[in-house]
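Lecture notes, continued. The same structure-token format from the folding unit now serves as the input rather than the output. Read the line below as a description of shape only.
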């Protein structure tokens, strides 16, 4: 994820990480905790959007984490789904995976339609405010 963030933000892509976990739920962080977490995992998004009420997450029908959404400059969602085709948390297992996000960004930046605009999401569920 961090490599992908660095690669694509260097090419001008705006990369937002959205944290929609509610207070008291798994994944919830305060602004101070968020900054420490980014440093710990060496993340490089353009910005992190804290969404403890889940408004943004629900707007995009986020069900799992990590759900990846690519939005073109006109505001149209051109990709929604998993980061890649290997649902595993082990970095060693993702070597050689088909990276759907990179594919979508490559196609979009070349002015082509995204060949795979939707894939099955995987990961833990988003812990929304009830």
């Amino acid at each position: 994820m961090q490599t992908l963030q660095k690669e694509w933000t260097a090419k001008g892509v705006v990369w937002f990480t959205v944290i929609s976990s509610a207070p008291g739920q798994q994944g919830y962080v305060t602004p101070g905790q968020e900054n420490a977490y980014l440093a710990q995992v060496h993340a490089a998004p353009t910005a992190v959007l804290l969404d403890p009420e889940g408004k943004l997450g629900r707007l995009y029908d986020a069900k799992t984490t990590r759900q990846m959404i690519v939005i073109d400059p006109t505001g149209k969602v051109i990709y929604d789904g998993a980061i890649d085709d290997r649902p595993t948390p082990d970095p060693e297992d993702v070597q050689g995976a088909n990276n759907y996000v990179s594919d979508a960004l490559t196609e979009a930046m070349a002015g082509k339609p995204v060949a795979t605009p939707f894939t099955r999401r995987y990961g833990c569920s988003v812990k929304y405010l009830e």
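Point for the exam: The chain has a mean pLDDT of 92.
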